[in-house]
Design brief:
Length: 288
């Protein structure tokens, strides 16, 4: 017989074990649910990486965004397309990091590559932040499909100061002593330029070489050969984007009336970017 005191201790432990087993069951169900040939690059252009199952899941409805719809970022768009074109055709290319203001088109620009390079060997694999440490398992899968060029897309990549995953991520991107297949590139977005918070206090420690702390924090961002910053849009650029979407969605207002409506919407939203402009146009297009 267990005493009342022993039951109080055992019951929470049993609950935790049950919860853990339930999570394991869900993972196993997900891993066994699909018998599709998930590495069929001939049939699918986009995939999602499942780090728990070490499996690629085909995306049957890839997003369709044309680069021409992304306004206000022409210089960056040109460089990203140029780098990707070289990669697709087997030339030299760099990993890319797009960082900066929210809603300015960072993620949309990378997604638009699926449209810009449709009917080419380009394939895109989305990797979620919590699966990045399993990326090395992808290398053998992709290396067996040398005729295809694979972009590993990591959206909203960043690390908190307490996290040390970024150290492993550096090795993953460099390959360590493993040769990374030449048909792989990393494209990532982040709100942070260096992916990890950097502070003035990093230079005010009692270390003999305090600069080492800063160097360690920014070393991951250095793995991206091309890094582009996205900044707050000017009012002129915002209004141009708002007018573009308004015409596309059939908003009846035009000219100064449309501008006043768009500016009022931006003030209420607290932001003046491409995402806000599209949200404004969608709302203005709604019939009363």
């Amino acid at each position: 017989m267990y005493s009342h005191r022993e039951l109080v201790i055992i019951t929470p432990m049993k609950t935790k074990i049950d919860q853990l087993l339930a999570k394991v069951d869900r993972v196993l169900d997900r891993c066994l649910a699909d018998d599709t040939d998930v590495t069929d690059f001939a049939r699918h252009r986009a995939f999602r990486w499942d780090g728990a199952c070490r499996a690629l899941t085909p995306i049957s409805r890839p997003v369709h965004i044309h680069p021409d719809r992304l306004l206000g970022i022409d210089a960056i768009k040109h460089e990203v397309l140029r780098n990707t074109k070289s990669f697709v055709h087997g030339g030299k290319a760099n990993n890319i990091l797009l960082w900066g203001e929210r809603g300015t088109g960072k993620s949309s620009l990378i997604k638009s590559l699926l449209t810009a390079f449709n009917k080419t060997p380009l394939r895109m694999i989305q990797v979620y932040r919590h699966d990045i440490l399993s990326i090395t398992s992808l290398y053998d899968m992709i290396a067996g499909h040398r005729s295809y060029r694979c972009i590993l897309f990591i959206d909203d990549l960043s690390f908190e100061e307490s996290q040390t995953d970024y150290k492993e991520m550096k090795t993953i991107m460099d390959g360590g002593i493993e040769d990374i297949p030449d048909n792989i590139l990393f494209y990532a977005t982040s709100n942070r330029k260096h992916l990890i918070p950097t502070r003035f206090s990093d230079n005010a420690s009692d270390e003999i070489r305090p600069s080492d702390t800063v160097e360690e924090k920014i070393s991951l961002a250095d793995r991206f050969g091309l890094s582009f910053g996205f900044y707050h849009f000017s009012e002129e650029t915002y209004l141009k984007i708002a007018a573009f979407y308004a015409a596309e969605y059939g908003v009846p207002a035009t000219g100064k009336q449309l501008e006043r409506m768009a500016i009022r919407w931006a003030l209420e939203a607290g932001s003046q970017n491409g995402r806000t402009a599209e949200q404004f146009a969608k709302n203005a297009a709604v019939k009363d």
